[in-house]
Each structure stands twice: as C-alpha cells, then as structure tokens.
Amino acid sequence: MRLANSKEDYNDIADEIYRLREERHKALAEEAGKKGSKQRLEDMEKFINEQSILLEEYDQQLVRRLIEKITVYDDKLTIEFKSGIEIDIEK
Prior knowledge:
Blueprint: H1 2-50, H2 60-66, E1 67-72, E2 76-81, E3 86-90
Antiparallel strand pairs: 1-2, 2-3
Organism: Amphibacillus xylanus (strain ATCC 51415 / DSM 6626 / JCM 7361 / LMG 17667 / NBRC 15112 / Ep01)
Protein name: Site-specific recombinase
C-alpha cells in the first residue's frame, strides 16, 4: 500500500515539475517580448529625434517606416506602430 501511495506522490511531483517548467518557459518568452518591444520603441524614438526638419505635411516614407497598420472603426481609429504600441483615437 505504501508503495502505491509513493508512486502517486511521484506522479504528482512530476506533474508539478512539468507545470513549473512550462510557466518558466512562458515567463522567459514574455520577458524576451518585452525587451524586443522596448528596443523597437527606443529605435523609433532615436529615428524621430534624428530628424532635422519640422514636419509640415504628410510624409509617406515616414508613415511607412513608423506605422504597421491603421484600423478604422465606426467610433475610433486604432493605430498600430511597428514598435508594437497601439493607440486609439476616438472620433
């Protein structure tokens, strides 16, 4: 009887180890994603700060370099930058 109980305990511990490994993997992947987003944001900020002229009209090249997509809804616009940041503009 004791041997059967210890086998059950072993299975519980093994399941917990696998669960914790999966959580660790997810946490590491999330951290890497955050670092990547931070780097893209820093790159975008650097690019903008390097611009020597005042933007007075629409610049196609600048838009293509900074913006991934714009989604139009009935009540708002969602702008997704290549850095991963999204902003909503209410109409």
